[in-house]
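Practice record 12: protein with 6-chloroguanine.
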Amino acid sequence: MRIDIVTIFPEFFDVLDLSLLGKARQSGLIELGVHNLRDHTHDRHRTVDDTPYGGGAGMVMKPEPWGDALDAIFGEPAPVSSEADAAPGPILIFPSPAGEQFTQAMARELSEQPHLVFACGRYEGIDQRVVDHFATRGEVRLVSLGDYVLNGGEVAVMAMIEAVGRLIPGVVGNPESLVEESHEGGLLEYPSYTKPSSWRGLDVPPVLLSGNHGAISAWRRAQQLERTRRVRPDLLPPAV
Ligand code: 6GU
């Protein structure tokens, strides 16, 4: 998978050299391009924002640097006549608290794409015409991490890339570790324990030491249901 990120803070993404995703990049499973929006400004101050039309607090990101930065990734707009035969382009994602909610299902769907482009806004957002223009050229999605406000899209994009990247075949060593996790099966994960069997007066639940695999499965399932009922009842399937 190819991933491009446009941001005014390219250093933010240096951490993608680390850990599983760093390894996936070294092995070529993920190809990453991080682009500085300010490289697409043309004034001495490398200005990326301006005051909002209609007034109000804060600043809005100007459309021209965004248009040039994204053109450089997408290629120049295709002539209308050749549009029909063009291969499907990348999916363009604008992290935004006004977007649809990012979920494990969306992560799974995005992990099957050949090319994702993330456009990280700051300030009060990006001029809406950038979204509207690129929506005429391909698939555009506004995506929110959840119902809280971040200062910009960078941290949200980092979370999305980690959630998507680990679903790309080969990125996580043992694919079985992806199956039992919270949110893939609809319920939260059961609690895990390792040695020692007693620690600070707390004992590992005896069933896990029993060697009885049927009993262990049943206990884990019951734990999943209890946890989900307690903290995330919204995830439970409707009662039959
Ligand atoms: Cl994607 N961006 C920002 N700025 N804030 C958020 C968010 C995204 N998701 C939740 N809050």
